Amino acid sequence: MTIQQLEYLIAVDKHRHFGNAAESCFVTQPTLSAQLSKLERDLGVILFDRSKMPVIPTEIGVQIIAQAKRVLSESKGIFELVAHLKGDISGVVKLGIIPTLAPYLLHLFIRNFVEKYPKVNLVVQEMVTEEVVKKLKNDELDLGIVVTPLDETGILEKPMFYEKFYAYLSQDHPLLREEFFDPTKVKKEDFWVLQQGHCFRDQVLNLCDQTMSGPTNFHYESGSLEGLKNMVNRYQGVTLLPELATLELSKEERGRLRPFKGIAPIREVSIILNRSFLKQKLVELLFNQITAVVPKEMTSKAHGKIVRFK
């Protein structure tokens, strides 16, 4: 049994197709098939049901694939440990970040980070929190930047900063006469929210849904905060924006922001990682780079109350 055979095994499980798995491993299909057949002979079991399309792992194959993932993760850890002990800041780092953070955070630190650490190849993907966690656990990502707390087994959370929620109102909205935003004064048909799957949506509904009432004959859920903001700009309504999303608003748009009445609701933004990830120095450097570019007051959670989304 070799590490390479285990990599082929996991690739077939991921793609459920021998040809696609071979392509992802940069080998020919006959090579990959031969190696998996050899692995099956050595183990004395059948790992995949090849009569199905797409191919599926057998019952025992499922268990062996799970063990193979753990073995590969540990073997990868050897190289990470050596690099860590040498103080070497290099290699490919795959980072997942949620869509309600990416447009407002990445441009603040990415350029400085890649210039400071030219040996690091930072690969960034936007995805919802559930997908970030799943890919971390499957070793398809190294790090995530998401809203916490998650309380996920095997996932470490390193809080970086805390964003206040602000109400963003349409021009001439009646609530603009108020100094603070009171969600009890908002009707359901007046509110714009993100589509399902976004943790920000869940937080917004936790804040406001219990207090809003009234019928609606039009329902729109956007995939981005910018989409919501544009709907508010064009039509009558209200949405919520996290603090970073408000920093580059125009003077006129900032005039239509209102803080919440009472204790400010905030969201906690963290770096998350698998407990087996050994590049702690890299996490520290990324943490420092990000906390250095956000407003200082956002690094303390003392200025509000965290809104959970689970």
Describe the structure.
- The protein has helices at 3-15, 18-24, 29-43, 59-86, 102-116, 129-137, 199-208, 225-234, 251-254, 280-293; strands at 48-49, 56-57, 91-97, 120-126, 143-148, 155-169, 193-194, 221-222, 238-242, 257-259, 265-274, 305-306.
- It is of the alpha/beta class and 310 residues long.
- The chain folds into three domains: 3-84, Arc Repressor Mutant, subunit A (Orthogonal Bundle); 88-161 and 266-303, D-Maltodextrin-Binding Protein, domain 2 (3-Layer(aba) Sandwich); 162-264, 3-Layer(aba) Sandwich (D-Maltodextrin-Binding Protein, domain 2), CATH 3.40.190.
- Strands 3, 4, 5, 6, 9, 10, 11 and 12 form an eight-stranded mixed sheet that branches. The chain has a two-stranded antiparallel ribbon with strand order 1-2. A two-stranded parallel sheet has the order 7-8.
- Helix 1 crosses helix 3 (29-43), helix 1 packs across helix 4 (59-86) and helix 5 (102-116) packs across helix 10 (280-293).
- The two termini are 42 Å apart.
- The model is unreliable at 210-220 (pLDDT under 50).
